[in-house]
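Lab notes, practical 5.
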Amino acid sequence: MRALFQASKILLLDLASTLLFLAVYAITGNLFLAVGLGMALGIVQIGWQLARKQPVEALQWLSLVIIFASGTATFLTDDPLFIMMKPSIIYGIVGLVMLKRGWMTRYLPPIARATVPDLALTFGYVWAGLMFFSAGLNIVLALTLDVTSWAAVKSVWAIGSKVGLFGIQYAIMKSTGMRRARAMMAAS
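Output from the prediction step:
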């Protein structure tokens, strides 16, 4: 269970600016406040790691670049359709980054790295697939729904799909890891 909390902590920190954006937008309905706070949190997170001389992973840099690019575009255009299409661009870029072999290793506890590295690689590609699917789904939603309906459906899908895949991945990797660990102990 401790390993789940450790992986969840890292994932939540990587998604913190997005989660802050969603929370502020859901509470206030103020797009510009939500975007501004998401951008500020992204800067603070990277700055904190750099100040502590900790490595900044590729997905974290990508997140900061996306937050800045999309946030700036949101401020400049004030176009609802652009704002609604923006997640498709983000999902596509994140999906491309997730095609990097082994990106998920950072999120695994040592025991998982030892027992299920192959599943981590496979699920890395499954996550990339989810990002590409989400990009396409978002385009369809943006072109067919009004802004309020789009925001509601998008929020449920964005959180639900990731929590669901995370739960499936955790269950499969945990059960497979335990089985393999027992087999390794029995063999030695």
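Observations recorded by the TA: The CA atoms of residues 42 and 122 lie 29 Å apart. The chain has a mean pLDDT of 85.
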